[in-house]
Design a protein that fits this description.
- It is a single chain.
- The chain is of the alpha/beta class.
- It has five domains: 59 residues, 2-Layer Sandwich (Alpha-Beta Plaits); 267 residues, no CATH class; 69 residues, 3-methyladenine DNA Glycosylase II, Chain A, domain 3 (Orthogonal Bundle); 88 residues, Beta-Lactamase (2-Layer Sandwich), CATH 3.30.450.20; 57 residues, no CATH class.
- The two termini are 82 Å apart.
Length: 556
Amino acid sequence: MSQVLRLKKSNCQNCYKCIRHCPVKAIRFSGGQAHIIDEECILCGTCFVVCPQNAKEIVDDREAIKVMLQDDAPVYVSMAPSFVANYNVGIESIDEAVRKLGFAGAEETAIGATIVKREYDKMVDAGDEECMISSCCHAVNLLIQKHYPDLLNRLIDIASPMQAHALDIKRRHPDAKVVFIGPCVAKKDEALQYDDIVDGTLTFEDLSRWLEDEGIELTRSMKFRNDSKTRIFPTSGGILKSMEKRNPDVKYLVVDGVENCMAALEDIRKGGDGKLFIEMSACAGSCMNGPVMEKYNSHPVAEYMAIAQYAGMEDFPVEQPDLNQIRKGFEVIKMDSIKPPEREIQATLRRMGKYTPADELNCGTCGYETCRDKAIAVIQGKAEIGMCLPYMRNKAEDMSNIMFDSTPNGIIVVNERMEIQQINPAACKILNVRMPSDVKGEQVVTLLEPKPFIDAMEGGRQIFLCLYLAEYDRYVEETVLYDKKYGMLFCLLRDVSDEARERARKEEIRLQTTDIADKVVDKQMRIVQEIASLLGETAAETKIALTKLKESISDE
């Protein structure tokens, strides 16, 4: 399945949008990167559609098909019926364009839909089954095979329209190969699973790029034919609209969107069925709203009308094959994930900071409906603890508070109106504030001179001052910073009172030492002069030496 949908790792930005929208949570996160869990993915394409960074990509098979076209065997296109809404042209225009690319021609997948819906009618007429689920949508088939294997017997074992049409083309052209083109991601996987039926797949986007590269434009024409009833297939309820529904004992239900399909399957699992035929589609609005429809804005009414007006009232003239030729087997696809024991779930919840039920906010930011679901995903290796926004915010705030409260330097946060927003314990101690709440919201002038704050805000520069705060009997180094982006001023106060007082003490000692030196010099000069007079020598050299000693002490 990794051959179909993959991740461009460099673009994944840790936003968790894909997991929030993935209906079966088949995405795991590791190292801040999203990874698709192949064995759980149903290829609904939701992650591809919602990714804001274009980090998901569908594998493009154009090169492989170009190689296929170089062989002698003719290659036909089976065009999904939603092409009318995507291109707003008829099948004749598509046929003309793909022939220029080297294909033998293009036909409508709706021809295969006619074969399928006839078999559905036969099963409904027989009324042997209590509850029957259509198997046209491969994403729904994968959903049941992987996540509801106990309901696999409800899935009608008939080939999809894509497969039925490919088989019909190959019946008419035994050497032919068939390439399906449509708006679906899951069809690529279906073609790979049953590789002896469909030989290649392209999306509408792939075809559009190919035509653009070759400079081919579609002819704007649309010819109506009445024998084209199953062209309505890609609309919500399209299968039922094309069926005869002759058995009055059978009820009919249309369910589209994976979440709604899951709700219906849960209901069936509980016994809520009966004589019922359910048309299921993974896409809300069915195939006309497929994940690779080339539309930048949704126009559901216009798109529906384009398809509905193109559809006729009678069936395509197609030869109905033997039932055994279009039987399709479904097997259970086992998944490795096992629900962990309760003690592990509770331990993980505690690691996430969820100690009581009140702590479980179930905000869904991580992509999971509940904190408990997230804890299970963590244990299963699908999620990381850090995906919890409240947890990370609380952790960041706790670390910030520890630093804010523990630093020996005073911190004061002031807004542009010069109102105190925050003050830490160190600043309270320096400025003799009893508790932060006493000054929060007050003007900064109640604590400090506001001029440095004003200068920092108006000049957009850092202000540094050394001050003696007489009212607090403190010597401080004050640094004021302005953050224009957040409109806040930050004042850092470093209490240097002990250092200043130590310097003052040393200055006093120095002055005392200098004074003593002066007295010693004077006294020594008198003694030297007396000795010199007795010895008959001059005292000039001694005076110079003592004077230098005095100057040296004064410089200390």
